């Protein structure tokens, strides 16, 4: 703590202001303002069709917003293309495990690193010195990413031969190999059993402890309530709540939004109770 007992202000990694996008006259995301604090885990939740993945697509440059601004570490990145956003330090995974199963674990991770290299098609065809340097850099960056996700020992195995959890880790390594500051995880626990989900939670905590900022879209409320520092709740494309897991789980607007799904409502209630028990 600084002299005089004053606490340092919390650094904002990413801030969106009035963010929105329309498809065919319908608002998929509408007037969302929120911030992601650096070095924390932010969960974006909401019923099916709430606009969660669309929100991620806007942040990562896959979609261009109809309205609003996106600021990353103080820089306006609203109109940047996807590869430019990645170059600034934002990487993401997808709902489905988008890995190349016929390639090795290392080759998959190297693909993620290629956005950081300078060599072009001509360099690749002629195997220039620049291409060889970039290849070495990609290999080193990929191995570092595999170390972080616990797969360095399986670098030369086919990615498709790994377990579901292993393949999820490959996908995360592909994102990490671009050396991001902010990692966006889109339903990272989808298709995973409870043991695998616990292992994944441990990995995410390790990544954040190592200096990464994480935002995740997730339906598994046990993971959200046990992992997130803050939660952003979307419903029909709009923000209806933002705060700590405990505060959000008691928010009347959130409870009402989830009443339409017994599964989600039950999970939220049980997870909130479990969280309270764990903090008792």
TrEMBL record:
The keyword Zinc belongs to this UniProt entry's keyword annotation: no
Record bears the keyword Cell inner membrane: no
Keyword field: ATP-binding, Nucleotide-binding, Transport
The protein's name in its UniProt record: Arginine transport ATP-binding protein ArtM
Residues in ABC transporter domain copies: 14-261
Family annotation (PANTHER family): AMINO ACID ABC TRANSPORTER ATP-BINDING PROTEIN, CONSERVED COMPONENT OF ABC TRANSPORTER FOR NATURAL AMINO ACIDS-RELATED
Organism expressing this protein natively: Deinococcus xinjiangensis
Top-rank taxon, per record: Bacteria
Gene: artM_2
InterPro entries assigned to the protein according to its UniProt record, in alphabetical order: AAA+_ATPase, ABC_AA/LPS_Transport, ABC_transporter-like_ATP-bd, BCA_ABC_TP_C, P-loop_NTPase
Gene Ontology terms for molecular function: ATP binding
